[in-house]
């Protein structure tokens, strides 16, 4: 599992600024690390499934994924609709 590591000063800042304990902060950092460590193809596949379950049609989904790839914290490369479709279906 990927984990985000913080320097002790920033970790202390977070623990003193929010009503969480160290074990919850560690759990959050593990979840965030896992989420942001996904490669582009894994993200596209997972996001396609989520949006499909929400009732979106593929044409809408492709555009939404294209937009989200540009907005991610660790943004993936610019991808065309065709590249997104190929990442989903092979």
Write the layout of secondary structure elements.
Elements: H1 8-17, H2 22-36, H3 40-53, H4 58-71, H5 81-89
Helix pairs in contact: 3-4
Describe this structure in words.
With 90 residues, the chain is mainly α. The protein has two domains: 37 residues; 50 residues, no CATH class. The chain is built from five helices and no strands. α3 packs across α4. It is elongated.
Summed up:
The chain has 90 residues and is mostly helical. 69% of the residues lie in helices and 0% in strands. The two termini are 26 Å apart.
Low-confidence stretches are none
Q: How much strand?
A: under 5%
Name the helicity range.
55-70%
What is the 3D form? elongated
**What's the number of helices?**
5
H/E topology pattern: HHHHH
Number of domains: 2
Biggest beta sheet summary? none
Distance between the termini: 26 Å
Query: How confident overall, as mean pLDDT?
Result: 89
Whole-angstrom Rg: 17 Å
Q: Give the class from helix and strand content and strand pairing.
A: mainly alpha
Count of strand segments: 0
């Amino acid at each position: 599992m990927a984990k985000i590591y913080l320097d002790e000063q920033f970790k202390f800042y977070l623990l003193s600024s929010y009503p969480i304990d160290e074990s919850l902060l560690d759990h959050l950092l593990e979840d965030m690390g896992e989420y942001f460590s996904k490669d582009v193809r894994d993200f596209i596949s997972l996001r396609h499934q989520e949006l499909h379950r929400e009732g979106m049609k593929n044409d809408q989904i492709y555009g939404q994924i294209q937009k989200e790839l540009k907005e991610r914290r660790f943004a993936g490369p610019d991808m065309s609709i065709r590249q997104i479709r190929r990442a989903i279906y092979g």
